[in-house]
Amino acid sequence: MVTLGTKRAARRPRGPRDTRGYRVFQVVNGIILTAVVIVTLYPFVNIVARSLSDEANIIAGKVNLLPQGFNLTAYKLVTSDPMFWTNYRNTVVYTVVATAISIVLTTCYAYVLSKPQLKGRGALVGIAVFTMFFSGGLIPNYVLITSLGMKNSIWAVVIPNAINVFNLLVMKAFFESLPTELEEAAAVDGLNTYGILLRIVLPLSKAIIATMVLFYAVSFWNSWFTAFLYLDRQELFPVTVYLRNLIAGATGAQSAGGVADADAVQAAATLQAVTIVLTTLPILTVYPFIQRYFVSGVMLGAVKG
Amino acid sequence: MLHRSWRRVALATAGLLAVSLVGCSEEPTESTDLTENRAGAMAEYGVGDQFTATEPLSFSVLYNNHPNYPLKNDWLFWSELTKRTNVTLEPVAVPLSDYEQKRSLLIGAGDAPLIIPKTYHPAENAFVSSGAILPVSDYLDLMPHLKDKIEKWHFHPELDSLRQSDGKFYLLPGMEEKPTQDYSLVMRTDILDELGLAVPKTWDEVYAALKAMKAKYPDTYPFSDRWGKPTPGGALLNFLGASFGTNAGWNYQHTTWVPAEKKFVYTGASEQYRQMLAYLNKLVAEGLMDPESFTQTDDAARQKLANGKSFVISGNAQTLVNEYRPDLARTNPAAKLVKIPLPVGPAGEINPAPRTSSGGIMISTKARESKNFVAMMQFIDWLWYSDAGQEFSRWGVEGTTFARDGSGKRGLTGDVDVVGLNPKGSKHLQKDFGFYNGVFAYGGNLELVQSFFSPEEMEFQQVMNARTPIAVPPPYPLTDEEREQVALWETPLKDHVTQNTLTFILGQRPLTEWDAYVTELKSKNLDAYMQLVDKAYDRFQKENG
Questions:
Q1: In a domain, B421, yes or no
Q2: What whole-number distance in Å separates Cα of residue A73 and Cα of residue A52?
Q3: Residue B316, SS3?
Q4: What domain range is B271 assigned to?
């Protein structure tokens, strides 16, 4: 973003805004944002460096930005655990299915809510917003999911949080900002409601949909709690639960209690780093591709709405 | 009825997971008639008998899934267990990271497995009032091995400490014949040798040794400690407190039993606690102890030890072998580290470890209605409490995973390894066979508990075993209302104690202000708290004493 801004500034012909004060602001702004980038990036680079270093150098506190004593044993170790890959596959499946369901449901709901002529619109918005502030609580939710027979199945993970109210409202605002004339014209040309949604509105909403995909995909990829609650078998867990357990096993020497495994009570620091890297990598690679929609999309909906 | 259950739901939302829907349903059957529940049980089952169900049975069990030996369905443990007992266990796998939370949820939702192991007292208190867990003390007659060990090992004081206000207990304890103290100070003995000092036996000698180290290496803090999170000084305060006759750190209890006066005192306001703080304050003030000891991360403390910036740290058998020694071997191969026998303090030569440190088992109330209830209790008795069951869950199958030498001492067979006993082994007793598993293997007689110890650790344990086990404080079980009241008082009291523990140690508040500090505690209902404890203690003595 920083480079993008400066490039544009350089190309633009000198105008009244290129005062000295503005240039100073640009420089200061660039420095501050660069600092923010460094602060945000450092922990991640450090984790990557740890994952590629050998244990001795990590313990000695020598690993900062560059790997010390380069080795890949930890990567081999983690990738050789079949449960890691099973859980990894689960995460991919859950994320894809859950995102698809969420997008369909959120789009439908938001589109309906964006129509001012809809009767009972206020109540429908109210129902959604109500869940932002109040929830049934842990145990009732658990009882609900269990009695619906969704426990220990993919549905327990992908259904309960399918509609995120915040995303819903953003999307509703976006749809409201679309010119009604377009839809009227489409109706005149003989499209029914579904045709308008599918052929006119959705093609114009790629930006917001891409943004929503990103929002949902990231949150489902990172989520572990629903899976932990409703799944009882480790071959169903997403990789986040695997990772969490690995880290907790490494830090919770005391809670391990009783018989603790002496040869590896502490999952080695490298091992943790490797798992963290492998877990965050895919979602990280998706980011840059959706990010351009992300920037324009959210602002578009929010400002005009 | 509906209204009531929804009120409960609201309560549960507020975080009271323990309040359960089960509590709304019928009360557990009080009847002692077990004729309907004997399917699959052995008619004659006594001490020394192998339990084998008369028909194939299966029981669900909550399984604490340890990341270092993740659950596998093809473990020899499962198949051999079924072969011996005709029982199949159905594990509900819960990641170790969030075991307690899931346990509360499952019990609260009435969906808990029948057998709930790895529960540490007093965690079961939260579930008692809901009626979701079984008062196991009513059914000890079904468990001959457990009863036998209670008598043989004089376990009554420990059992009493589990009792609730109804006089029953709801947790089958993990029982060790002798206490096993694991944590102590780890010291660089090469530095001691260099200074011509013997291994310190008392805390005063520890002080002298640290002083000598500081004199020789003025740029160091000789003692830089770890385990500062989440409880500052968790391990150190725990064993140091025990040496001073109080309890602190991980094991902080609000009350301390004073056997001589036969009464409880408030721990954080007691003279022993003050002495302990004064001792640590002296170490910090004279630069012998790193002030960061109570807040730094474990890794930071390890790095200081590894880089020769400190010479003393808290540790246990495993951290010594797996962390400190390998760390130092890389930076300073000449260094020697030893876990010294717990230094002796004003409380005398005591062994502070409890005999129930390995947690216990809860049973779901719904198991009582099962026709296989008796068989299940017999099964639990065999697996967790019989010598044969305990040996099986720890060592596995003779001839496959372990063998005995001429003197009867067990050893792992050729290619099996665990805790580094057989580094050449290609298979792992825990990972590949499912034995020595924290869910099933705990407690046991001295010989069994120590059978996995290294010779070095045995030496440490022999010193500790020769000391007097610490007296188990008498119980003062609280009623539900009292417990709620006490919970309101305990949090501010504990916060104030923890906070001031640190400021006193670090010298931010002089110990001359001790009386002012006690007054502050009194303004936080200290006296009312102790009156309630005394009342509960008297009541229990009257009813059960």
A1: no
A2: 9
A3: coil
A4: 181-352+455-545
